[in-house]
Model the fold of this input.
Amino acid sequence: MGTAMARRLDWDSEGQDWPNRASSRSLSAGGVDWHVQVMGHGPVCFLVHGTGASTHSWRDLMPALAEDFTVVAPDLPGHGFSRASDTASLSLPGMATSLAALLDALGMRPAIVVGHSAGAAILIEMCLDHMMTPGAIVSLNGAIMPFYGLAGQIFSPIARMLTLNPLVPRFFAWRAEDRGVVLRLLKGTGSDLDADGVEFYARLARNPGHVSAALSMMANWDLSALKDRLPDLDVPLTLIVGGDDEMISPETAFQVKSLVPRATVQYLRRLGHLAHEQQPQQIGEKIIAVARAQAILPSDDRGGAAS
Done:
């Protein structure tokens, strides 16, 4: 069973109380039927979530950024309410190409881009392939470096094996009916979320189509080529990392910094992998500060730079 055949989330029922629903729109581009949210005015800020998430992860950060930006946030192909026609769009190059087609269809040219986890890798790929030319990239606990050692040997092969069995997404979705399972998964990120955050992740995890897309994305993920190209990245890259991230070691951000000429690291203590959901105001201030430093926003906006 491919991701296109698995049952998808229904917008009229499961999306009835979706965060920032009034900003949602649907369109087709690049072989994907997209769910995308657009709000605010000003320079375009493009938000890309990570594997297994959706636009809900920006629920509090997005309105805050919309005070200064036109904020654009899609569900990745196969995730949330976006439908992918095949698994080709779930690889790193496939995601990059699909998102570029979405931006073209929207007529949007991002001035700053923000990616969480795997979303950061996608945005870097897009910049390296000249699909867009933003003034800055902000990586939030970015999954940019390949897995090494034993993890690297088993991660993708296991994901590929799981995607071959159409019953796996259904079994996982069935297990996610137990709220305790979802809570344990979220605890593994090193982040504590409020009840709404837990509920939206649980809703995604209970959907076989979303689970199938997340597994296919992991199965098709290869960061080796991206790592080799990092020294060619000419866009200023700010790597924001949570000290309590239990999914991606904060040390990887410093490895990326050593490879990218215009990279800086901002280390935030007591925040986990979902830092932007834990402390959206703090992360928003960091993004605003980057935009001011790169002259994307006026330096004296709101009376001075954020700390």
Remarks:
- Confidence is low (pLDDT under 50) at residues 1-5, 149-155, 301-307.
- The two ends are 49 Å apart (CA to CA).
- The longest helix spans residues 92-106.
